[in-house]
Amino acid sequence: MRRRVLAMLVLSLLLAAVPTAAQAKGASAATISGGGPGGLPGGPITMKGDGEPGSGSDLSNLADQAGVWAVLFEDGPGGELAAAPAAADRGPRYTITWTFPNGAGTEDKVRQSVWPYAAGGPLTFMASGQRVLDATTKGGWFRSSDTLRLTLIGLALPSRQPLTAPAPTTPAPGNATSPAPDPAQPTTAADPQPGVWPRVAAGLALLLVVAAAGALLLRRRTGPGAATTP
What are 175-218's pLDDT values in tens digits? Predict the structure, then answer.
């Protein structure tokens, strides 16, 4: 009886002290490749170590900077982008292949695309549905800080500055002038005082009548008078 109790106690302690591989979510390695035709000049770059979140290792820091934990599972800490940024602002693409030991004694490979020199900060993308640790990746876009670009340059990626985002085009302010007249519409000279000419004509006619009457009256007064007897 004592032997049975002791065996059960030892088994319980072992199960509590030894974590299973399925419980561990950290990567054990990361391989960086790509970058256009010919790939990296020195070939793919491989990092190994303890990739557990918060461990402070180089591998763990790289995973954190690349947004792995934000897009790996549904309970990620956030920071992902809702839509894909414009392709013209991304620059060359690299691929990070993350290795995760699983509980079956094998390894799961998760691929993530990286644009270190993108305008506005490095970009990463992880496709959804990739099998990892008895689950599948949530996936999505992630905008990182410039620390990721500097880290990758320190790992032998080309030293390049981030792309400059094109300035938004705004219409130039227009001159404060009146719009040109529509050529389809006939233009006419505007009469500033359309009621003046009829009044002028009526006045001239009245003057002519008065002048004619005055001339007739003057003529009658100056004509010869009638003969008288002494």
Answer: 444 444 444 444 444 444 445 455 645 666 676 666 666 666 66
Structure tokens at 188: 């006419």
Nearest CA-CA partner of 125 in 184, 83, 170, 76: 83
**Is residue 103 within 8 Å of 21, Cβ to Cβ?**
yes
Cβ pair 48, 37 in contact under 8 A = no
| Alpha-carbon Rg for the chain in angstroms | 48
Do the Cβ atoms of 123 and 90 come closer than 8 Å? yes
Q: Does the structure show a pLDDT above 60 at 83? A: yes
Judge whether 64 and 28 are in contact, CB under 8 Å: no
Asked if residue 84 belongs to a domain, the reply is yes
Range of the domain at 115: 19-154
The string of pLDDT tens digits covering residues 152-172 is 999 999 999 999 876 655 555
**Total length of the chain:** 230
Other C-beta atoms within 10 Å of 81: how many?
16
Domain count of the fold of the chain:
1
- Rounded to the nearest angstrom, the gap between the alpha carbon of residue 159 and the centroid of all alpha carbons in its chain is 25
